[in-house]
Amino acid sequence: MYPEILHAQQVILLCKERGIKNIVISPGSRNAPLTIGFSENDFFNCYSVVDERCAAHVALGIAQQLQEPVAILCTSGSALLNYYPAIAEAFYSEIPLLVLSADRPSHKIDIGDGQTIRQQHVFANHILFDTQLEVINSVEDQEGIATNERLINKAINTSISQHGPVHINIPFEEPLYNKVDQPSLEVKVIDLLKDESSIIPESFIDQWKNAKRKLVILATLNPPVFQKEDLDILTSDPSVLVMSEVSSNVVHENIIWGIDTLIAPIEKHDDQIKDLQPDLVVTIGGMIVSKKIKQYLRRFETKVHFHVGKRKAYDTFFKLAGHIKVKPQLWIEQLPKEYVKSNYQKRWTDHFKDYLIKRERYFEKMPWSDFKVFELLFKELPNDIVLQLGNSSTIRYAQLFQMNPTHVVFSNRGTSGIDGCTSTAIGAAIASNKPVTLITGDLSFFYDSNALWNNYIPKNFKIIVINNSGGGIFRILPGHKDTMEFDTYFETQHHLTAKHLCKMHSFNYQSISEESAFAKAYQKLQSNNKQPQLLEIFTPRRTNDTVLLDYFKFLK
C-alpha cells in the first residue's frame, strides 16, 4: 500500500530506488503518510523507536556499521528538535543520515496550531543540505513533481557523497491516512557524480622528502582502511613516527598506540619533549581524542600539517597546509621510496617500549579503581566483537591499552557527547553481524537510559557500566575537589544503580564492587546469550583520579 498523498509517494519511491532500506520511525500523526508507505513495503526495514533522541542515535549506529544512509522519520513540532544531538554527531563524524520530518503547510505555521514550530532550516549550522518539498495535489503539477524529484535526489546524493546528515521537511495537509494500491506517479533517479582524486601535490612530496621528523597520527577510522602491508611500508621509513588512537582500528608492532602514555611523563619538561617536535605532521581519520597531543603540537607550533583522506580537514594545530583527498592506502603507495637518515622513529618507539615494561610494575600494585577495571576488561574481552566506547572517562581510559586486532572499535567522537552512546551501540548491534559490547560510564548510561526502550536489541548485546557515582572525569581535570559546588554541579554525585532499569527492560543484571568478584561475573556475562546482559561495576569515587594521576607520575 502507498499513501494517497503524492509527494509522500515521491519520498518513498526515491528512497527505494536509491537503496535506502533502513528507516527508524518515531510515532506521530502528521508523519502517517510516510509511516504507512515505508512500513507496508517489504523492501524497507522499519524500526519503531518512541524517543526521537534515541531513535536518531539508533539510526546513527546502523549507518555507522553499514556505511550507508539510514532514514529517520518523525512527526511535526518539538519531535524534530530531539534529533539535533545525533545530527550534530553525524555531521562531525561524517555518518550519512536522511532526516525526514513531517510538517504542516506553510500557511498553518505561526497561527496557533498545536505541535507546530518553524521547522525549515532548524539544523542550519550542522546539516549538509536541507530543503522543504512542495505540496503536490495533482499529477498534472509536473513542475512541482520535477522540483521535488530534484530536491530529494540532491539530498540523498549529498548524504552519500559528503558523508553526513541531510534534512527534508515535508508539509502534509489532512487527510493523512488514505491509501492507494499503486503509486500514482513515477520517479526519476538523478545519478551521483563521483569525485575521486588520485593525485598527491608535488609540494607535499617535496616537503615529505626533506623532513627528518615526520609524525603521522591515525584517528577515528572505519575499518578496513589499511592492510598490514601498507603499515609495513609506512613504518619502514626511519624518519616516520606513527601514533594511533583506539578508534583508528589500527594495530601494528611499529606504531605507538598509547599517545598519552608516551607524552604524559615528559610533557612538562621542555628539553625532553622538544625532541619529539616533528617537521611535518600528517593526520588521517576523524577527530583526535588525545588532548595531550593536541596541546603539545599547538604549544610548540607545529611547522606544517597535512590531512589525508576524504574526511574533513580540521586545522587542529593551527598550521594546516593542505588537504590531500586521496585514499590513505593510495597515499602510502605514492610516498617516495628513498628515505632520509633519521633516528626519529626508533628513539620514540624505544621510549614507548620502556614505558610499557615499567608500567607493569605499577599494574601489579594498582588498587581497585576505574583504571584497574579497564586493565581487567582489556585482558578478557573476547575476540571478534564490535566494541562501542562511551565518552568522557571511558574513551580516555581505553586509550591507555592496546586494542585487540580482532575488535572493531567505535565511539561518538564527532561532538564527544555522552548523549546517545547507548542508543548508538544498540543501533550498531542491530546492524552488525558480530556481537556488540558497550563499555560506558554511569552518567552516560543513565542520561541515555531510554535507549533500552527498544524492541530490536539482540540477545547477545552486552553493556558494561562503570559506576563511580558521578562524573569521574571532573576529578581528573584541574579544579578544587570535594566541595559542595564540585560534588553537586561538576561531579554530580549520585547513588543510582542500573538494577531496576534492567528489570523493567528485560536485561539480565549483575553487579560487582571488588576485584575478587570480577572473574566469575565476567564469565557469566560472556556465557549468557539468551537475553541482553548488563554488568554494573562499582568503583570508589574518591580513589579513581589518584590512581590514574599516580600512573603518569610513576612513569615519569
Automatic annotation (TrEMBL):
**Which pathway is this protein engaged in?**
Quinol/quinone metabolism; 1,4-dihydroxy-2-naphthoate biosynthesis; 1,4-dihydroxy-2-naphthoate from chorismate: step 2/7; Quinol/quinone metabolism; menaquinone biosynthesis
The subunit field of the Swiss-Prot or TrEMBL record says: Homodimer.
Q: Which residues form a coiled coil?
A: none
> PANTHER family annotated for this entry?
2-SUCCINYL-5-ENOLPYRUVYL-6-HYDROXY-3-CYCLOHEXENE-1-CARBOXYLATE SYNTHASE, PROTEIN PHYLLO, CHLOROPLASTIC
Q: Which UniProt keywords apply?
A: Magnesium, Manganese, Menaquinone biosynthesis, Metal-binding, Thiamine pyrophosphate, Transferase
Q: Which reaction does it catalyse?
A: isochorismate + 2-oxoglutarate + H(+) = 5-enolpyruvoyl-6-hydroxy-2-succinyl-cyclohex-3-ene-1-carboxylate + CO2
Cofactors (names): thiamine diphosphate; Mg(2+); Mn(2+)
Give one GO term, molecular function aspect.
manganese ion binding
Q: What is its EC number?
A: 2.2.1.9
- Give GO BP annotations, semicolon-separated: menaquinone biosynthetic process
- Cited function: Catalyzes the thiamine diphosphate-dependent decarboxylation of 2-oxoglutarate and the subsequent addition of the resulting succinic semialdehyde-thiamine pyrophosphate anion to isochorismate to yield 2-succinyl-5-enolpyruvyl-6-hydroxy-3-cyclohexene-1-carboxylate (SEPHCHC).
**What is the recorded name of this protein?**
2-succinyl-5-enolpyruvyl-6-hydroxy-3-cyclohexene-1-carboxylate synthase
The UniProt entry's sequence similarity note says:
Belongs to the TPP enzyme family. MenD subfamily.
Enzyme class name: transferase
Q: Which InterPro entries match?
A: MenaQ_synth_MenD, THDP-binding, Thiamin_PyroP_enz_TPP-bd_dom, TPP_enzyme_TPP-bd
- Statement: the UniProt record of this protein carries the keyword Disulfide bond: no
Kindly indicate whether the keyword Magnesium belongs to this entry.
yes
Q: NCBIfam families, from UniProt?
A: menD (TIGR00173)
Q: Thiamine pyrophosphate enzyme TPP-binding domain location, by residue? A: 394-537
| Thiamine pyrophosphate enzyme N-terminal TPP-binding domain location | 8-120
Record's cofactor remark: Binds 1 thiamine pyrophosphate per subunit.
